[in-house]
Structure formats: C-alpha cells, structure tokens
C-alpha cells in the first residue's frame, strides 16, 4: 500500500487526497451500518500515524452529520496536526487520553457510545501491544460482554494484527467489521488474526485506475471476477458444448467419494460425466447416479483400482476434455502403480488433469514425479496432504499459506489449491520474456466456513473444478472459480441452517442456484 500511495502521488493523486477519501468512505460505511448517526455517541481511538489521521477524518464527517464524537488520542500526534485541528473546528471533542484525561473516563464514554472506531495502529506496527494502547483495547474488548454494546469497527485492520502474517496480539478485540482501505491486507485472511476481523469490507479510496496493479501478485477472489468466468449457456448449446469429464474415484471402502465428485460435476454444469470405478463398486454407484456414464475398472482383491486400469483409461482418453482423479482410491501397491501409469508414464498429460486426495498421497510416493510428466495439472491438497507431498510439517505448511502454495506450484509447474479456511490458489512462477522471473499469482478465497469441516466437502470441490476444466476454463481460472463457487454454495447452506451438520451433498445441491445467482445479466 505504501508503494501504491507513492505511485498515486506520481500520477497526481496526493496521499492527503487518499486520506480524505478513506475517511469519508469509512464514515459513510459506519453511518449506513448504524442507520444514521445523528445524536449517536461515537468514540474514535486515534494513534500516531496515517491510520490515526484517517480516524480524525472519520470523526469530522460523523460530527458533521450530527453525531456526538470524541476522538481519544492514545499516543503523541504530529505538531502541528491539521487533521486534529480541523476535527476540533467541526465540534469533535479531541482528548489526549492518559494526559489531560484519566483512562477510567473512557469507560463512561464507551458505555454511552453506539460506535467505536479503532484507528490506532495501521500496517506499520508488528510489535506486541503495551502500555496505554493495550489497556484501552482490553477495555474495548470488555464492551462485547455487555447486553447493550457499541458497534466495533476497525479502520484498515484491527490494532495488534500483523498485516502480513495474521499474527495477533491477545489484547486485540474481536471487531464487528474491518474496513480495509484500497485493498485487503493478507493478514486479514490468515489465522489467528482472521478471528478478530469480523466482516471484511474493502473500501475504494480513489487510487488511480490500474495504479501498481501489475506488481501485485496476491488477489482476493471476488464475485465480479467469478461472474466473468462462468461459462455462458447459449440457447443453441447441447451436452457437447459443456465438455466431458472423466472422474476416476472410489474403492470398496470409499464408495461415497466417487458419488460426491460425479454429482458435483453435474451440478456445476458439465455436459457429460463418466465415472470410472472398480468393478465391484460400479453397481453401487450406478444405482445412485442415473445421469452418469459408468466405466468399470479392473480391481485388486481389496476392491481398489488395479494397476492394469491405467491402460483401460489410456485407450479411451480422446473421448474426454478433462480428468479428475484420486478421491476415495485408497492406498496400496496397485493404486501406486495405477497413479504412476496414469499420471506419470502415460499420455494423460494431453488433457487438463486434477489430482486430489489419495491421488496425491500416491503421487507423493513417486520420486521426482513432476519431472516425469508435463501438461496442464491441478493439485488440490488439504494441509495434511500438502505436508505429505512436500515432506514438511503441517505447521510449516500453514505458516504462510499463500507463499507455500506459490513455492510448490512453481516447483511442480502445476496449479496448487491449498484447501482450508481462505483457500489459496496459486499458479507457478515462470521466466518472462525479458529473462526475469514472473511471480505466479495467488488468489485467496474470502470464505472461512466451519460448516465445511466435514467429510466429502473436498470431493465436491474436486467435482466443481473438474467440471469447469471440462467446460474449457484454463486450470488456474477453473480452480479459482471453483473454490469461490464451493465457498458460496456452502455459505448459502450454513446461512439457512447453521454450520453444524452440513452435508457435502447439500453443497452440491446448492450449486445451481449459486451459479445462476452469479451469472451476468
């Protein structure tokens, strides 16, 4: 953001203009959330830098609209301080807390206030909170226990939350909403700090169009972008228009995984779905999936796919537009040989391929597998599977999810979908035409839904992304779009019934309405 503001200055939009825009945008958002501010008690907690200055602009506008505003200065401010002076001229009560006013005075202010705005510390602070700032934030946090409590809004990010890593101080209150200025900061979408953010809202602060965006390698998946990616459905289309997906999944112990992938692929719009399963699994899934084409595969004595099945798939590979493999396959010497024959040594690299679940676990057992294959590839590990693939611990995988996804996407030259809260979708970095390294883009999901912490939801995501691959989306775009649709569909289910007891199949059933609600026009 500092670099973007500097570039904005060079293009003629001053930092002061951005500050004024930001303050007005925050004030408008606060007024909208409160249903009007006339006569309302408001406390703005002000720190030393630009974050505090933004807060003083907010205070001025809220006072202009009739609120009773107190700006509490928790640290020293520049002298002179034009933003504070202007706020005073509009009737804002500006108090230096701890100097001319006792800290206990804040308790009375908080008790009478309908709104508290945290504008103390912004992106430049990462040290532990201490002293007056810590004491004040603990008092603000205590207001959440009251029956009549103020609305808590953080300006740009909650004080004490690291903007890069998501690390957070234990004194940082849980906000009702965080109003990110210009762009959301990565730490707002990383735990443990994300638990303090509340609703995340991004506000336009008037950065010139396109300023610096070629240099940003981290994006938030948005409804507008996803809407632009959803394949059109022309009136003269037919089943062949929307592609043919081959799903290789299931075993005697994991029949449901195969059904979940195939059904989700149908619900996400694939024209045709063929499900390849072990011979003993075929009659079970065929009775549940009447719209699906079925391909029985040779199996071993335990009801898992046999190594010979790779050749069966190779022989009919030209019929399909994409392949999704791995869900519920299990692990054995036969499945290992099957994955090697299918994904590494065979011609499957000629079509977009997604590998999930036991496909990943088997792939991890093949030395240097990524050097032995080519072609469009999507890998969708959860943190445990990512640890297996990389040889790292789950803790190391989770420490910086965006960087982890990008690093291994580059190593494997594949799209990596690192699942979990705020799923990270990374494309590989590649050399550019001028000889420099093009840093691969990472797209972050805006969804963190505990309802998805149940078996089978990852299989549904596999079906959605596989379906979009078959419909012709590029692997990186199909992955990002699929992650968003999966999250939005799950959000619709949990909104209706809560996060407890969500079934993976319910996410699939919510997909058509979700997709249609996002379709342009």
UniProtKB/TrEMBL annotation:
Cofactor, how bound (note): Binds 1 potassium ion per subunit.
Catalytic activity: (6S)-NADHX + ATP = ADP + phosphate + NADH + H(+); (6S)-NADPHX + ATP = ADP + phosphate + NADPH + H(+); (6S)-NADPHX + ADP = AMP + phosphate + NADPH + H(+); (6R)-NADHX = (6S)-NADHX
Positions of the YjeF C-terminal domain: 222-518
Cofactor(s) essential for the protein: K(+); Mg(2+)
E.C. no: 4.2.1.93, 5.1.99.6
Protein family according to the UniProt entry: Belongs to the NnrE/AIBP family. In the N-terminal section; belongs to the NnrE/AIBP family.
Record-given protein name: Multifunctional fusion protein
Organism for this UniProt entry: Geodia barretti (Barrett's horny sponge)
């Amino acid at each position: 953001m500092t670099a973007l503001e500097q570039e904005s200055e060079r293009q003629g939009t001053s930092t002061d203009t951005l500050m004024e825009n930001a303050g007005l945008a925050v004030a408008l958002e606060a007024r909208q959330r409160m249903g009007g501010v006339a006569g309302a008690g408001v406390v703005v907690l002000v720190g030393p830098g630009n974050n505090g200055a933004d807060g003083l602009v907010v205070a001025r506008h809220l006072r202009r609209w009739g609120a009773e505003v107190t700006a509490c200065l928790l640290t020293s401010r520049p002298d002179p301080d034009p933003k504070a002076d202007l706020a005073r001229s509009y009737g804002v009560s500006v108090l230096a807390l701890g100097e001319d006013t006792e800290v206990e005075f804040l308790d009375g202010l908080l008790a009478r206030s309908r709104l508290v705005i945290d504008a103390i510390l912004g992106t430049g602070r990462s040290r532990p909170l201490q002293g007056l700032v810590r004491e004040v934030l603990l008092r603000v946090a205590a207001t959440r226990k009251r029956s009549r409590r103020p609305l808590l809004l953080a300006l740009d990010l909650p004080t004490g939350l690291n903007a890069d890593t998501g690390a957070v101080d234990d004194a940082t209150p849980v906000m009702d909403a965080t109003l990110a200025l210009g762009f959301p900061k990565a730490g707002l979408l990383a735990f443990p700090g994300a638990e303090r953010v509340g609703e995340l809202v991004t506000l336009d602060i008037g950065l010139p169009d396109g300023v610096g965006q070629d240099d940003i390698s981290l994006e938030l998946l948005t409804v507008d972008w996803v809407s632009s990616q959803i394949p059109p459905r022309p009136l003269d289309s037919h089943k062949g228009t929307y592609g043919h997906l081959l799903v290789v999944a299931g075993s005697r112990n994991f029949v449901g995984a195969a059904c979940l992938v195939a059904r989700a692929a149908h619900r996400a719009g694939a024209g045709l779905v063929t499900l390849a399963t072990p011979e003993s699994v075929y009659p079970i899934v065929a009775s549940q999936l009447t719209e699906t084409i079925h391909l029985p595969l040779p199996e071993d004595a335990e009801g898992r796919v046999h190594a010979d099945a790779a050749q069966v798939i190779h022989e009919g590979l030209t019929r399909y537009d994409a392949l999704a493999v791995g869900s519920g396959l299990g692990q054995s010497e036969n499945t290992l040989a099957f994955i090697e024959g299918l994904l590494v040594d065979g011609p499957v690299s000629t079509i977009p391929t997604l590998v999930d679940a036991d496909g990943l676990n088997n792939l991890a057992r093949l030395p240097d597998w990524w050097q032995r294959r080519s072609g469009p590839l999507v890998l969708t590990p959860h943190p445990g599977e990512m640890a297996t693939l990389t040889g790292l611990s789950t803790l190391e995988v989770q420490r910086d999810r965006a960087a982890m996804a990008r690093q291994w996407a580059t190593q494997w030259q594949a799209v990596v979908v690192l699942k979990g809260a705020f799923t990270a979708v990374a494309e590989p970095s590649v050399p550019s035409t001028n000889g420099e390294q093009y840093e691969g883009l990472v797209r972050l999901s805006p969804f963190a839904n505990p309802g998805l912490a149940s078996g089978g939801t990852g299989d549904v995501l596999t079906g959605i992304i596989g379906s979009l691959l078959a419909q012709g989306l590029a692997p990186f775009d199909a992955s990002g779009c699929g992650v968003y649709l999966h999250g939005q569909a799950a959000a619709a289910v949990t909104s209706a019934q809560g996060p407890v007891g969500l079934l993976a199949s319910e996410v699939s059933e919510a997909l058509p309405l979700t997709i249609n609600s996002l379709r342009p026009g």
